[in-house]
């Protein structure tokens, strides 16, 4: 299993890199074929679908937990029954999602009538009709992915994710080349998702020898599962409100084209998160062990600070580099008409730095079973985000939504740090003093990078790449002299000499 985990981690890194590269290459092609308005409608449908998926209620994690529990206990009959209960539950959720989808379908015209034309509303409804089928079938199929995870078949899961990352855009490109537009993309994506779901079903029954027994609902067990899943569900609601509400607000108050601008800006924020958080899992086992055995809080704080500093190096490198050449890259990538994405992307990315450098604090809370308060905070801030965005969007359009989201993220970071300090009793001052020491070398790096821009005419990918190489050298030299401590220099030397980071 240890070797399998290593392979799964490697495949995950490959998937992230390939996924981001494909997305960067694929997006301009898609925008050129669809145009802003059509792409905005496509993004809008995806945003609505994301909300309906909340009907999962966090049960996916419960499937994993209870399958694992019964496997350890060697209770095969209990596992058959619980899987039968979960499959029945997901079939019901699939039916409910279809009913909810149909209700939304018949009310889309009323909801979007102020900002979308009749033709745009009809095209949105066509895409959403296919999406309803996708959602209703995805619920019962999703249980099989969770069962595979419970069996710790991580390599298989990561290979499937890699195939999804490569093949889904390939299908979209093929659809567009044959003359279909957003509707064809939704159909292609739906068929592909169903096929992958069926592959998981076959894998479960043929390879894992899965057996399911329909024996009705165990009310006591269901209550236990629901209590376990509720705060996962609450966090999922907050996440969807946070990252999918802005496009809905734009659709209601502004129109389709601004949604496309905002969607491209959000895409850079997604890249930022995926690349910045890639190291977190390497430190997760050690952190979880420390929390479980209740080691000294000072030792825990030192480890969290070490991890936070490393996360800071990664996200500050990406963020400063984007501030310097992001606008030129966007213009070269998707055209002058999307240049304003640069401003929105920066507004969304900057507050994320606070979340990224404290990303393992959330894992620590789960290990301590104190994550419910964080879920309440996240949900409250998400609601504040919606209210701010509704007020600001009417005057500033997409920029207003971005500002509302950014303010919400900053409030969220402050509230969480108050919780960490006064309830969890962590030395938050020690953490932030260590992080603030890195602001000076970051500022110097930005200044030198800004001066280096005069050496380049950033009108091609090659010139942007050449600047990126020079900026990387500048960043490394400045931080080696002024930023990295002995531990950080040691893990860098270890990574270079042995190809891995020793903890």
TrEMBL record:
The chain crosses the membrane at residues 9-29, 41-64, 85-106, 126-147, 159-179, 185-208, 220-242, 248-265, 310-330, 342-363, 375-393, 399-419, 431-455, 461-482. Pfam families: Polysacc_synt. The keyword Cell cycle does not apply. It comes from the Bacteria. Its main location: membrane. Keywords: Cell membrane, Membrane, Transmembrane, Transmembrane helix. It is found in: Cell membrane. InterPro entries: Poly_Biosynth_Transport (IPR050833), Polysacc_synth (IPR002797). It is a multi-pass membrane protein. The keyword Isomerase does not apply. GO terms for cellular component: plasma membrane. This is Polysaccharide biosynthesis protein. The lineage of its organism: Bacteria, Bacillati, Bacillota, Clostridia, Eubacteriales.
């Amino acid at each position: 299993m240890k070797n399998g985990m290593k392979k799964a981690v490697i495949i995950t890194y490959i998937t992230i890199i390939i996924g981001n590269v494909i997305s960067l290459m694929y997006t301009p092609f898609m925008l050129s074929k669809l145009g802003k308005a059509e792409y905005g409608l496509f993004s809008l449908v995806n945003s609505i679908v994301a909300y309906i998926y909340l009907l999962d209620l966090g049960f996916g994690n419960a499937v994993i937990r209870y399958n694992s529990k019964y496997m350890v206990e060697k209770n095969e009959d209990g596992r058959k029954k619980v899987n039968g209960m979960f499959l029945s539950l997901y079939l019901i959720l699939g039916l409910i999602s279809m009913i909810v989808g149909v209700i939304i379908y018949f009310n889309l015209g009323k909801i979007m009538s102020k900002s979308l034309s009749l033709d745009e509303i009809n095209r949105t409804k066509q895409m959403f009709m296919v999406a309803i089928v996708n959602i209703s079938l995805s619920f019962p199929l999703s249980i099989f992915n969770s069962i595979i995870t419970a069996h710790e078949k991580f390599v298989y899961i990561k290979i499937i994710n890699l195939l999804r990352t490569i093949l889904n855009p390939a299908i979209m490109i093929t659809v567009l080349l044959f003359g279909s537009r957003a509707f064809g993309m939704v159909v292609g994506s739906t068929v592909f998702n169903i096929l992958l779901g069926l592959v998981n079903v076959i894998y479960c029954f043929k390879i894992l020898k899965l057996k399911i027994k329909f024996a009705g609902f165990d009310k006591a067990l269901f209550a236990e599962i629901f209590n376990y899943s509720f705060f996962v569900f609450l966090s999922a609601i907050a996440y969807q409100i946070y990252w999918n509400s802005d496009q809905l607000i734009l659709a209601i108050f502004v129109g389709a084209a601004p949604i496309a601008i905002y969607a491209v800006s959000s895409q850079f924020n997604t890249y930022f998160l995926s690349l910045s958080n890639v190291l977190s899992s390497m430190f997760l086992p050690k952190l979880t062990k420390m929390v479980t055995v209740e080691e000294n809080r000072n030792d825990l704080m030192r480890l969290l600070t070490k991890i936070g500093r490393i996360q800071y190096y990664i996200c500050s490198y990406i963020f400063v580099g984007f501030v310097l050449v992001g606008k030129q890259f966007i213009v070269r990538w998707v055209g002058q008409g999307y240049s304003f994405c640069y401003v929105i992307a920066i507004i969304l990315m900057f507050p994320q730095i606070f979340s990224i450098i404290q990303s393992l604090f959330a894992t620590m809370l789960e290990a301590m079973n104190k994550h419910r308060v964080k879920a309440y905070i996240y949900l409250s801030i998400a609601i504040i985000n919606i209210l701010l965005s509704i007020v600001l969007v009417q005057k500033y359009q997409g920029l207003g939504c971005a500002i509302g989201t950014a303010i919400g993220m900053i409030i969220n970071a402050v509230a969480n740090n108050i919780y960490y300090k006064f309830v969890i009793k962590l030395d938050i001052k020690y953490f932030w003093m260590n992080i603030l020491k890195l602001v000076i070398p970051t500022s110097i790096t930005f200044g030198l990078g800004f001066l280096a821009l005069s050496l380049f005419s950033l009108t091609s990918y090659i010139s942007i790449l050449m600047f990126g190489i020079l900026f990387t050298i500048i960043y490394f030299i400045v931080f080696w002299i002024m930023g990295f401590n002995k531990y950080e220099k040691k893990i860098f030397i270890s990574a270079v000499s042995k190809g891995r980071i020793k903890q």
